[in-house]
Amino acid sequence: MRRYLIRRVAQLVPVLLGIALVTFLIVRLAPGDPAAMLVDTTLLSREELQRFRASLGLDAPWPVQFVSILKQLATGEIHSLRTGQPVLAMLAERLPITAVLLGGAIALSLLLGVPMGVLSARRPYSRLDNWLSIAALGGISLPGFWFGLVLMWVFAGILRVLPASGTGPATSLTYTVFDMAPYFVMPTIVLASGLLPPIMRYTRSSMLEALAQDYVRTARSKGLSESLVLYRHALRNALLPVVTVVGLLVPVLIGSTAVIESVFAMPGIGRLVVEAALNRDYPTIMTLNLLTAVAVLVSTLVVDLLYAVLDPRIELD
Amino acid sequence: MSERARRFRRGWPTFRMLPRAVRLSLMLTAIAVVAPPPAWPAEKVAVVAVGATFINLNPLTHIVSTMRVMNNLLFDGLTRFDDDTYQAKPDLAESWTVSKDGLEYVFKLRRGVVFHDGSPLTAHDVKWSWEVICHKDNPRIADVYVDHYVQIRGCREFHDGQAAGVDGIEVVDDHTLRVRLTEPYAPFLVSTAVTGILPRAKYGSIPVKGLLQHPLSRAPIGTGPFMYVDWKEGDRLVLKANPRYFRGKPKLDGLIIRFMPDAAARLIEFKNGTLHFAFFSPVLTDDFNAAKADAKVVAKAYTGVWNYFAAVDHTNPLFKDARVRQALALAIDRRRILNEQWGGYGAIANSPINPSLPAFDKKVAAPEHDPAKARTLLAEAGWRAGSDGILEKDGKRFAFSIACFAGTSRTMAIVYQDFWKKLGMDVSVDTVDFPALWGVRFHPGKFEAISFLWPSGFYPDPAVGLYPFLCANSRTGYCSAEMDRLIVAGRSAVNPQERLKNYARFQELFARDMPFMWVVSPADLRLVSPKLILPARGNDFLVMKAIMEWDLKE
Amino acid sequence: MAERALDIAQAMPGARAERRGEWRRFAANPRALAGAVVLVALVASALLAPALAPYDPTEQRPGRVAEPPSAAHPMGTDNFGRDVLSRALWGGRVSQAIGLLSMAVSVVVGVVVGGLAGFYGRAVDGALMRLTETVVTFPTFFLLITLVAVFGARLPLLILAIGLTSWPITARVVRAEFLTLREREFVQAARALGAGGLRTMARHILPNVVPVIVVAATLRVAYVILVEAGLSYLGVGVPPPAASWGSMVAEGREYLFRAWWISFFPGLFIFLTVMTYNLVGDGLRDAFDPQRSAAAGAPRRMRA
Q1: Shortest CA distance to B129 belongs to which of B177, B66, B189?
Q2: C282 touches A: beta carbon within 8 Å
Q3: Which of C55, C80, C233, C238 would you mutate first to test chain B, the one with the most B CBs within 10 A?
Q4: What is the pLDDT of residue B11?
Q5: Residue C5 — pLDDT band, cuts 50, 70, 90?
Q6: Measured on CA atoms in the order B421, B426, B431, B435, is the torsion positive or negative?
Q7: For residues A47 and A42, what is the distance between their CA atoms, to the nearest angstrom?
Q8: What is the average pLDDT across B285-301?
Q9: What is the pLDDT of residue B440?
Q10: How does pLDDT run across A40-92, given as a tens digit for each residue?
Q11: How far apart are CA C162 and CA C141, in angstroms?
Q12: Domain annotation for chain C: domains and CATH numbers
């Protein structure tokens, strides 16, 4: 196990370096001088402009810049080109919002998706199953930004029961977690709309398979109640692939936060990526891309380990 | 069989069939969602929205338009600009004297002024703050340096690294400062002396190069009426009233500035009573008109700060002929744009100087909408319709693109495209992001036509916004010695009548040559909560400046 | 490792013989049939947009700004006075074309990578799968945003970028198919008779893999259209004046509470198009392998 872990972590390094290199190249190759965004370059004399660019580290040859960026990333001393703020501090400020969104969406999708999948498996090809699977298809076909806008229009514009955007009320200098809850409802629903259908479908299919297994027939013949059979025996085994699906969809989910946070004006990581890209804030862009990749790689590793731990039949390489 | 199992067998889902844990979590979530938010606290906190974030809260390292507002909330300068008389009024300096030749100023600082951390203000803080602007490692504020500070004796030498300090700024004693200039500079008191002052004790040890990144630039210490409490980037900036402010404590207890770029969301918050004001945040004309009839929100139209214009590259052979440029200007129906895009609120723009300033020349008129005359001019210049309907001359088609950035710049570009297409030109719209547009594209040879806007209303003094019309800084390739002379004369004349005459002639020349083709100066439509008592001012920038007069009804 | 388990699951074992009757099965599936009909209608409307659109999509009609749906304008007009229905039809050309082209890039790369990996196995497989994993772990949407925001939105760049970041799923599916088919008798026979690697792949395996590719391609179009719409909504997608559905939704955002139709209808088109591609893709998958549809592709536990 330990060797496997070490090997997996070691494999992370070239992947991360590759991502760092690609993001670095993309931003450096881009047209438009990041310096020009921060200062009116026509006002500066040539030496002043040189000095400014040097102060930002923009005049060194590319390999040198890359190495210096890597050093900054390694020590954490990396600052946004636009605001001067340490990128890690910016991330820390915004991470809770995105984390709550993601956590809420995953929780909601599991809480509703698994039971719905079980129900479908209980009566496969029934009318209920049919409608649920059409709904699932609809869910993954929804453009998140459109769905979000429609929800906003209905619930914030017409019915006025939910706030349109933002993360919290502005009624006082501080506010509590409970105040923030209504602001997260619609974004979480939109985010979950992409995750719930796959969870439901995989639960259904693995439940169907589990239910066909011998041990289920044994349990049934022993006279155990239906729900006990369902929830205690079949579901436990059927959940493993579902966990895998969640793990695999995490990168896509994280990407979706960019759109959803923009629609609902929530200052989270996804929105930060969009803003940083539009502002050519390349230190921020690189840090975000790398950290997201790390998060995804770690979650994949966790899923694999969970899989191995929960199912003794699996051997790790 | 149990009731539950029976229902389960039938295949109908019910709430009770879900596992207990799931039911519990769903119920808790429902409660959290439906529970009403807490009531307003007893303290008077005004909530203001802004559409664009401020990058940094250090007046010595960053000036973007939203920062100017922050300047007034958190910091003070030696003088402040009086919007009624267009003169400088005492701020941190309680009095000053100017020598006859306009080269020497002696300021007497107010006594008893303290910074937000309790330390007293002295002339050393002023000298240090001004030196930071002259410092070579502070290029972000280059325009301020070039325009307002380079006239201070010794600033240029300090900037070039030839001196250890600016010898033109002399600390006579803790409350007296003498400043010497190299040449008379009329806007000195209203432009140079208004910069926010920071405490040298706290900021002095930070190298100027690292000032921007230092945490103190995001959690600043100034002398202003409001103090920093908290800032969640992209979300809100929380300020509280400064009880030791030298003009007295503000009527408000606190101010929350929320970053809300979305007009629809702002409207909803106004209606819900959770937003009091929004500055630099346009309101759709439909919403504005509806608000006029709505008791829950007050609609106010202010003189616009932004002038929209179209410009062409004067070095491009397509546009070299003055008749072609005139034709382009005549093709635009300004009245219709004002009515359709802005509901008729505002004025047709015809000058780089804002209508609210005395230097604005009312007599200079914008070109009338006359597409027939435009076509005649184009024909005179040799352009005839080709077989595909597009104008051509000597085998060359009249095809070009309008560069713009996302937002109203693009909206206007699409509108201009429509007008110019009707003249028989092949026009496309090229949207780039703002840094690429301002930094790279908007230079001679790098664009063909451009749709842009000019913030003429920010500057208390007309001199400040005119630098790009000088030959050296020309963005459009337009260069006129006469215009250069008028701009410089207007800036350096000390006699106000003299300045006005120069500016009048400048505006005449501008209207004739059209380096920029002004289109409209839309009114700034704003919404205000009826609970907020706002001082009456000409635009929202000035309203924010008068923060001391703000109050909230109980 | 867990992904590999899912790969096998998504594979569709079954030689040609088992696939007979697939079109009949497809036609018998009401959802798939309905989806196919609507999809054909949508694609046709995009192709025929110049003929179908009642107005010029770029014509700004003064005085008719932001009008609600009416007889003259069934989907209303936008903030410039342009007819929303016409714009939506023309926007379909852009969105669907980008979708199909990006899918083509994605499928080509996916088939090549998956085929090589599945057929040659071992080292080649290992290396290619490492590459696939890297692309999957990439926060691809973020990368796309960065790419397009920074280089400027140009159609070829957009199509290539979307295509090059969405091929892993196709690769995995193709690879799984190749892995299973490689062990089949007819393949063994061909190789015993001396057929070379590439020849075997092209002549014997590839034709059997075509159904898998078709299904994957259909489903990829759905995914790619959503990605392009998302990018366009954020402002880093299709550059103006070519308007795609996503950018139309973004334009109408400001007017959401006053003129909801500007955002609503283009978005509805996206939803319907993607949904029908998904329906057809699912239907094809069920039609090509009824056995699998019964077991519903539950992932098998596999040795890593």
Answers
A1: B177
A2: yes
A3: C80
A4: 45
A5: very low
A6: negative
A7: 12
A8: 85
A9: 73
A10: 555 566 666 777 777 777 777 778 878 887 888 778 778 887 777 888 888 88
A11: 9
A12: 2-8+29-50+75-296 (1.10.3720.10)
Question: Would you give the DSSP letter of residue B107?
Answer: E
pLDDT for position A22? 79
Signed CA dihedral, B294, B296, B301, B307: sign only: negative
Q: Which of A36, A157, A170 sits opposite B435 (nearest CB)?
A: A36
Work out how many CB contacts closer than 8 A connect B with C. 43
Token representation of residue A267: 């200052």
Chain C residues at the B interface, defined by Cβ less than 8 Å, are 58, 60, 62-63, 65-66, 79-81, 149, 152, 235, 239-241, 253-258
What is the structure's pLDDT at C26? 79
Q: Where are the domains of chain A?
A: 94-279
Give the sign of the dihedral formed by CA A31, CA A35, CA A39, CA A43: negative
Query: Which residues are CB-neighbours of B419 under 8 A, at least 6 positions away?
Result: B331, B332, B333, B371
Q: Which of A179-188, A209-218, B204-213, C139-148 has the lowest mean pLDDT?
A: A209-218
d(CA A228, CA A234): 9
CA-nearest residue of chain C to A155? C257
Q: Hey, CA dihedral for B347, B353, B358, B363, is it positive or negative?
A: negative
Tokens in use for A1?
Answer: 């196990």
Q: Which of A278-282, B97-101, C80-84 has the highest mean pLDDT?
A: B97-101
Least reliable range by pLDDT among A173-177, B81-85, B360-364, C287-291: A173-177
A159-199 pLDDT, tens digit each = 888 887 777 766 555 566 777 888 899 999 999 999 999 99
3-state percent helix, strand, coil for chain B, nearest multiple of 5:
35, 20, 45
Percentage of chain B modeled with pLDDT above 90 = 28
Pairing state of beta strands B391-393 and B384-385?
A: antiparallel
Nearest residue in B to C67, CA atom: B286
Partner-chain residue, chosen from C31, C143, C256, that has the shortest CB–CB distance to A289: C143
DSSP letters spanning C77-143: B-TTS-BHHHHHHHHHHHHHHHHHHHHHHHHHHHHHHHHHHHHH-HHHHHHHHHHHHHHHHS-HHHH
User: What is A94-279's CATH superfamily?
Assistant: MetI-like (1.10.3720.10)
> What's the gap in Å between the CA of B265 and the closest CA on chain C?
9
Residues of B in contact with C151 (CB under 8 A): none
pLDDT > 70 fraction of chain B, expressed in percent and rounded? 87
Confidence of residue C219 (pLDDT cuts 50, 70, 90): very high
Residue C296, pLDDT score: 38
Give how far Cα C284 sits from Cα of B383, C15, C214, C276, Å: 58, 16, 8, 12
Distance CA C250, CA A263 (A): 9
Long-range contacts formed by B381-384: CB under 8 A, 24+ apart? B381/B321, B381/B323, B381/B324, B381/B327, B383/B324, B383/B424
Tell me how many degrees the CA angle B493-A48-A64 measures, rounded to the nearest 5. Answer: 165
Nearest CA in chain C to A298: C137
ipTM of the complex: 0.83
Name every residue whose Cβ is closer than 8 Å to that of residue B358 and which is 6 or more positions away in sequence. B86, B500
CB A117 within 8 A of CB A202: yes
